[in-house]
C-alpha cells in the first residue's frame, strides 16, 4: 500500500496542560480509538495557538477524522483522558495523494445544524395564488448558492417522513414531489451557518412523462433565522415568480 505524508495544522485555544489529538478511521489515526490517536505538537515558530503533526496515510483513500483536546493521565503509558471532541455532525475528511498534503483547518470550531421542515397539517405547507398551478403537482428542491472557493464546507441532506416510515432519498435535479400525507425535512450543516444563501425552487410536473417547469422560488438567508436567537420556530415566506418580484404563493415551514 502506497503512503503519503499529510501535515495537519490547526489553531485552537486549549487549557494549560492540555494537548490536541487527531483520531480517525485509518490505522495510523487509531481507527477511532483515542488511546491510539496521534497528538499534535505546538508550533513555537508561529504566533498564537497553532499545532502541527505529520502523518503517513494510505494514498487515494478517503479518511475521516476529528480533533479533540485532552491530557495524559499517565505519562508512561500515555493513557489519555479526553476533555472535548470537536463537535459537529460530520467528521472532517481527506484523500491523500502524491505531492504536498497540508491541511490548514483553521480554528477548531463546531459545526451548526439547521433543520427546515415542510409539513402539511391542517393547511398545506405550500399555497399558490394562481389556480393554474396545482400544489399537488409541485416539486421542491433546496439549494445553497453564492458559495466561494474559500467558504466553509456545507452539506445538505433531505429526509421524507410519513406516518409509517422515514427514509432519506437523494435530492433529484427537479426536486421532490410534495405529498400532503407526508413531510420533508432539510438538514443544512456548516461551520458558518450565519452567512448562507438558501433557495427553495418549485417546479410543476403536470404529467409523469412531462418535463418539470420552474414556476417559482423562495430566497432565504440563514442569518434571518440565526439573528432571532431562537432554536425553533415558524417561517412563512413568499414564493416569487422567476425573473420578477411578483409573489405567486407562500411556503410555510418549521425550523
TrEMBL record:
Top-rank taxon: Eukaryota
Pfam families assigned to the protein according to its UniProt record, in alphabetical order: CBM_20
Recorded GO MF terms: starch binding
Stored PROSITE patterns: CBM20
Record domain CBM20: where: 1-110
GO cellular component: membrane
Annotated protein name in UniProt: Glycerophosphocholine phosphodiesterase 1
Organism: Eptatretus burgeri (Inshore hagfish)
Amino acid at each position: 500500500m502506497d503512503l503519503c505524508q499529510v501535515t495537519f495544522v490547526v489553531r485552537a485555544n486549549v487549557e494549560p496542560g492540555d494537548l490536541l489529538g487527531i483520531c480517525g478511521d485509518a490505522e495510523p489515526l487509531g481507527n477511532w480509538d483515542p488511546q491510539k490517536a496521534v497528538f499534535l505538537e505546538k508550533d513555537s515558530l508561529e504566533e498564537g495557538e497553532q499545532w502541527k503533526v505529520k502523518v503517513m496515510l494510505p494514498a487515494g483513500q478517503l479518511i475521516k477524522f476529528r480533533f479533540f483536546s485532552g491530557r495524559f493521565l499517565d505519562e508512561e503509558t500515555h493513557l489519555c483522558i479526553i476533555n472535548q471532541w470537536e463537535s459537529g455532525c460530520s467528521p472532517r475528511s481527506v484523500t491523500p495523494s502524491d505531492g504536498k498534503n497540508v491541511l490548514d483547518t483553521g480554528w477548531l470550531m463546531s459545526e451548526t445544524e439547521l433543520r427546515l421542515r415542510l409539513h402539511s397539517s391542517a393547511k398545506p405547507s405550500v399555497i399558490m395564488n394562481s389556480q393554474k398551478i396545482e400544489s399537488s403537482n409541485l416539486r421542491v428542491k433546496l439549494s445553497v448558492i453564492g458559495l466561494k472557493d474559500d467558504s466553509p464546507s456545507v452539506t445538505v441532506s433531505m429526509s421524507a417522513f410519513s406516518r409509517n416510515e422515514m427514509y432519506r432519498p437523494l435530492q433529484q435535479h427537479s426536486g421532490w414531489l410534495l405529498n400532503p400525507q407526508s413531510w420533508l425535512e432539510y438538514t443544512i450543516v456548516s461551520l458558518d451557518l450565519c452567512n448562507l444563501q438558501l433557495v427553495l425552487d418549485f417546479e410543476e410536473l403536470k404529467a409523469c412523462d412531462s418535463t418539470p417547469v420552474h414556476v417559482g422560488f423562495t430566497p432565504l438567508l440563514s442569518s434571518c433565522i440565526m439573528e432571532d436567537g431562537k432554536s425553533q420556530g415558524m417561517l412563512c415566506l413568499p414564493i416569487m415568480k422567476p425573473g420578477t418580484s411578483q409573489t405567486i404563493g407562500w411556503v410555510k415551514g418549521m425550523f
